[in-house]
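Hi R.,

Here's the chain you asked about this morning:
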Amino acid sequence: MTACPANSDTMSGELCRVIKRPHIERISSLNLRPRFTLPPVLVLVRDLIFASRISVTAQAIGVEIKQLRDPAMLAAENADRRLIVDLNQGGAIDAAVEWKKRTGGEVIGFVAHVDADTIRRARDAGIDHVLPRSRFVAELESLLRGR
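And here is the predicted structure, written out as tokens:
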């Protein structure tokens, strides 16, 4: 075991070079102190890994989010803000449309690009922005900022 050049932790030199050091540099460059300056965003995503990705991006750019995992939880949300929703969740389209009617907020939905039926249903139902998952990921920061 050798000392890691980034700190005093010990690990194999190869691990330190490949994993530890870039990880430390990336985390320290994010400056993750909360500094919420943009309007809050509701996030209805059941997938924990994807929700985590949204959360980290939001925190890095100073956007407060409130995460929901169940479409039924939208009924209790009355704030006029934006909603990001995984449209592949059962009941998500109907819950998002009801929330939009009640609050007047903007709905941004993402869906698997091969799910043409869900894309069509979401657009017909009145979801403001329906994006394939890959495009959503590519534009996540600007979507959280409100474009």
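One quick note: The chain has two domains: 1-30, 38-145.

Cheers,
M.
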